[in-house]
Specification:
It holds the Pfam family Perilipin. By secondary structure, the chain is mainly α. The protein is built from five helices and no strands.
């Protein structure tokens, strides 16, 4: 999970979403109260689930470690094959706009000639 969260694409997407979320919460008191309640609910459910699952995880720790190792290797391989995962969202959007503009210009030139 940490490895996925640290991918440039994922962390930049989190930043893109969290900034307007924080701004909206601070700018609108009614939305803030709803968001705070939702966050508290998610935190409570997460804590309850973690306490229930902890004994099972302790028993399965060697298997979880093996699965984590396998997943880590898979993510490393995926990162090598998909370099887009190492780019921030803003760059992906910019590159996409540039590509679309280029293709549209090529099509326009082809049609006009």
């Amino acid at each position: 999970v940490n490895q996925v969260a640290n991918l440039t694409l994922v962390s930049s997407a989190r930043d893109v979403v969290s900034t307007p979320y924080a701004y909206t919460k601070e700018s609108h008191p009614y939305i803030k109260s709803v968001c705070d309640a939702a966050e508290k609910g998610v935190k409570s459910v997460t804590e309850a689930a973690a306490s229930c699952v902890q004994p099972v995880l302790t028993t399965l720790e060697p298997h979880v470690a093996a699965a984590s190792e396998y997943a880590s290797k898979g993510l490393n391989k995926l990162g090598g094959k998909l370099p887009v995962l190492q780019k921030p969202v803003e760059q992906i959007i910019s590159d996409t706009k540039e590509l679309v503009s280029s293709r549209v210009a090529e099509a326009k030139d082809a049609v006009s000639s």
